[in-house]
Amino acid sequence: MVRADKYAPTVSIRVVIGEDDYLVRQGVERALATQDDLVVVASCERYEGVLEAVDEHQPDVVLTDIRMPPTMFDEGIRVAAQLAADRPEVGVVVLSQYDEPEYVLAFLEARSERRAYLLKEKISDVTQLAGAIRSVAAGGSVIDPQVVQRLVEARSKRDSPLEWLTPRERDVLDAMAQGMSNAAIGAKLGIGLRAVEKHISAIFQKLHLTEEPHFHRRVRAVLAFLSEVP
Predict the structure, then answer these.
(1) What pTM value is reported for the model?
(2) What is the sign, positive or negative, of the torsion defined by CA atoms of 1, 78, 222, 162?
(3) Looking at the domain 13-143, which fold is it?
(4) Which of 18, 57, 132, 173 has the fewest CB atoms within 10 Å around its CB?
């Protein structure tokens, strides 16, 4: 089913929803309707429908389940890869039941800018969902904190340089992997900007990673390292 809103204000963030479960789809639509700056321009049940809706309605963001018909396997990841190639200006927020590293990295393989990976159980949190949509529309990246923790824990069980990080550096690493800017990390942890920069410098030295100028590139590097099999 596709529904267009011809009267949406031009300043709004236009959203296409991809979700095969009718009740979930309706719930997400109702949740986003409470946000004045978010407008659902299309709602689809299948992978092909999402791509058709993107062509027709020119959205800013696609909010999609990771699994939809026809295969119920990786349609959300395929949507992200297709849009990275054809419409890089469109952000993608994937809703998933899975916090395994391979799903996250497959989703971010084509690009990490304008991408968010949220656990499906969080869709009832309108603030978090709407915030992720706004972030990717603005060019940022968001990774569900639970997923970040899962990656950190999995990596920590191996022989890893993560063991060399201090507790504060681990906190900063978690925030970096969620796509936060240095200023946002400082505000979250209650520390100054120079302290954040010092911690990040130490993290990259200990993890043997090259610092990039944009935080969303750091997200990809950190996630790739955390999920790497030695």
Answers:
(1) 0.69
(2) positive
(3) Rossmann fold (3.40.50)
(4) 57
